[in-house]
Amino acid sequence: TRLLLLLLLLLLLSSELSGTQDCSFQFSPISSDFAVKIRELSDYLLQDYPVTVASNLQDEELCGALWRLVLAQRWMERLKTVAGSKMRGLLERVNTEIHFVTKCAFQPPRSCLRFVQTNISRFLQETSEQLVALKPWITRRNFSRCLELQCQPDSSTLPPPQSSGALEATAPTAPPFPLLFLLLLPTGLLLLAAAWCLHWQRTRQRMPHAGEQVPPIPSPQDLLLVEH
Questions:
Q1: Where are the domains of the chain?
Q2: What residues contact 174, with CB distance under 8 A and at least 6 apart?
Q3: Pair 150, 63: CB distance under 8 Å
Q4: Which stretches does DSSP call E strand in the chain?
Q5: pTM, full prediction
Q6: Which class is 33-149 in CATH?
Q7: What pLDDT digit, counting tens, does each position of 124-171 carry?
C-alpha cells in the first residue's frame, strides 16, 4: 500500500512538473461576449489615453496573437493600479477574458522587443482582434512552442536586397589587361612559331640542293644588251 501511494505521488508530481511547460486548453477560456466587454471599457476610457504595444513581434500565425495578449494582460494589470472603482471593474471584466495567458509559463519578454506608443482605443481594438483570431483554435492547438516571445530579425543584420545594378555587378566581367595578356600569350607564341616554320620551309624550298648549279647573276652590261 505504501509503495502504491508513493507511486501515485510520483505520478502527480511528474504531471505537475510537466504541466508547467504545457500551454493547452481543454475548454475555451474566451467567452462569447468578450467584444461587448471590450467595447464597454473603450466607451468609458479616454480615447487618446497612451499605452505601448510591441512593434516587432514575429508574424506567427497563432503565437503572434497569443504574444500580444500576454503583453495586453500586463497592461490591464498596470491600468487597474491607477484606475478608479468604476474603471477598475470594467478593466477586470476585460482582464478576465485574457487572463488565461497566465496559465502558460511564458518567459519574460526579450530585450530585443521594441515598443511604440498608441492610444487605448486602438489597443483595445487590437486585443479584440487577437481574441477573434484565437477563439476557433484555443482548444484545438497546443501552444507550448509559443512560450518565448520572438522578435523579428533586426534589419541591420539582414542582407541588403539585390538591385539590378548589384545583379549586373555579379555578372562575369572581362579580365583585366595583364591577365588577358597572359592568357593570350601562349596562343600568340604558337602562331608566331607556326609562321616562322612556314617561312623557313619556303626559304628551304628556294635554296639549291647539292649538285645544282646556281645561274650566274647577270652583269649590268648584259642587262643593257638584252634591252637593245
A1: 33-149
A2: 180
A3: yes
A4: 50-54, 115-119
A5: 0.60
A6: mainly alpha
A7: 999 999 999 999 999 999 999 999 999 998 765 444 444 434 333 334
